[in-house]
Design a protein that fits this description.
Strand content: 15-25%
Order of helices and strands: HEHEHEHEEEHEEHHEE
Radius of gyration: 16 Å
Number of strands: 10
Strand order of the largest sheet: 1-10-7-4-2-3
Shape: globular
Distance between the termini: 18 Å
Length: about 190
């Protein structure tokens, strides 16, 4: 990555990190998506259950195989709907934030198990990247609407029963102290 572009992205993430820390999130900064995957795995406890929401960046074969070394609700086997319903009780849910506002609100789009993870899991790990930063919540909803076809296509590819268009918003991490970890990548994720 060109040095000036990296500097610019890092500065944007510096500003956002400050906001997120004030809002009670745990922050983990990484450079690449591969680094993000490794960081996420380091945050998991093999003795506790883990669920995975809808995410292109976290659906790679290597990452899924590493998750299988943990107590993982493996939704990629038979009975995927039953496994997704059971995964609502996971100790840790790993999801990808579609957009994050400059004020630290995280917008999540996916199947019901993705948005429900915001409420059910004891701990939440959210992957975001610099390219997902939007001005405010309305800009985030506008971007989601612009990319509706993408989310529907992703849902179909993941064999979700619904259109994969459940939307959740995390306002802040203060209500659940040290519950939400945000893994922030300089390298772009998703759209």
């Amino acid at each position: 990555m060109e040095e000036n572009l990296r500097w610019y992205k890092e500065k944007k993430l510096d500003r956002l990190s400050s906001v997120l820390l004030d809002k009670g999130y745990l922050i983990h900064r990484v450079f690449t998506v591969k680094d993000a995957q490794e960081k996420i795995l380091s945050l998991l406890d093999k003795n506790k259950t883990t669920a995975l929401g809808d995410s292109w960046e976290l659906m790679g074969k290597d990452f899924i195989n590493k998750l299988r070394e943990y107590n993982f609700f493996d939704r990629f086997k038979e009975n995927s709907e039953e496994i997704k319903r059971n995964s609502l009780t996971a100790n840790t849910a790993v999801i990808e934030g579609e957009y994050i506002t400059e004020k630290g609100q995280i917008l999540v789009v996916g199947d019901y198990n993705t948005s429900s993870a915001l409420f059910g899991a004891e701990n939440l790990i959210v992957l975001v990247s610099e390219n997902k930063i939007v001005k405010d919540i309305n800009a985030g909803f506008d971007k989601i609407k612009e990319n509706e076809r993408y989310y529907k296509m992703r849902a179909k590819k993941l064999h979700n029963l619904n259109e994969g268009f459940s939307i959740g918003v995390i306002e802040n991490g203060k209500k659940f102290e040290k519950r939400i970890s945000v893994v922030m990548s300089v390298e772009n994720t998703g759209l």
